[in-house]
Design brief:
Length: about 270
């Protein structure tokens, strides 16, 4: 009797571990990297268990652990497409965009980088008058196509279809000599250590050029980006003036970012 009672748990436990680790590897294959908090939620486990899984997977050479999370070993990190990004934290992105709107005034010249959160902000600018928006994003430009009081300045460049944006040396050169009040930028990850990051070198290069035009940089990043570290740095923390995120963001990471001199605001979602 005793052997029958104790046998099943011994057989089931490895299955649970294998399933958790499969979920982690699948997630990293798609996202490139993830925070510990993401992986805890993904695997429905504790932080202790998630860390144990990461150690085991790292020992097998399947990932690299990073501060507060892990990064895939699948080669070049996957850059999420617009369609993938649009399905993530839509309500939070809308709340972030609404809060960012208060930082824009008539007469401003601003930058809106590529991304679903900057697109959400662009949709709120349609009724503005005497506003200039510099962008490499086709989605931002499309959102403002009927905005009679907004002048839209598009960069040149090569179309990167996955994110509906223009990149490359022509995009970077077209920004040379421009000066704007502030740049509103997004990315794929944000940590206190490395700042804003993206999996793509060409995207990072044009984001740096966009940031270089601005008197100050405002990062718009929902909670799924906070604590994530992807391959290429775009904006270091000491170049960021403001971060607007949502209430789901990791408080400890936000505290580290704030200690670096960034003004952090969290947008609440209306119930």
């Amino acid at each position: 009797m005793t052997s029958k009672e104790t046998g099943p748990p011994d057989r089931v436990a490895p299955v649970f571990a294998a399933e958790r680790r499969r979920r982690i590897l699948d997630h990293l294959h798609v996202k490139g990297s993830a925070s510990l908090r993401e992986l805890v939620e993904l695997t429905e486990s504790s932080e202790v268990t998630a860390r144990r899984d990461l150690r085991a997977l790292e020992a097998d050479g399947l990932l690299s652990r990073r501060h507060g999370g892990a990064m895939s070993h699948d080669g070049a990190p996957h850059e999420p497409s617009y369609a993938e990004k649009a399905q993530v934290a839509a309500d939070e992105k809308a709340a972030i965009a609404a809060l960012a709107l208060g930082m824009i005034a008539a007469g401003d010249a601003i930058v809106l980088g590529a991304g679903t959160t900057t697109q959400a902000l662009a949709k709120r600018l349609v009724r503005f008058h005497d506003l200039t928006v510099v962008t490499n994003s086709l989605l931002v430009a499309q959102a403002l196509v009927r905005a009679r009081g907004v002048d839209v300045v598009m960069t040149g460049g090569t179309l990167r279809g996955s994110i509906h944006a223009l990149v490359g040396s022509d995009a970077e050169q077209s920004l040379s000599g421009l000066r704007t009040v502030r740049a509103f930028l997004s990315g794929n990850g944000l940590t206190a250590e490395r700042g804003l990051t993206t999996p793509s070198l060409v995207v990072a290069n044009v984001d740096r050029a966009l940031a270089a035009t601005a008197g100050e940089v405002v990062v718009l990043a929902d909670h799924t980006k906070i604590g994530r570290d992807t391959m290429v740095q775009t904006v270091p923390v000491d170049r960021m003036a403001h971060l607007i995120t949502d209430e789901g963001a990791d408080p400890s990471e936000l505290a580290r970012i704030a200690r670096a001199g960034v003004q952090v605001q969290r947008a609440g979602i209306a119930s």
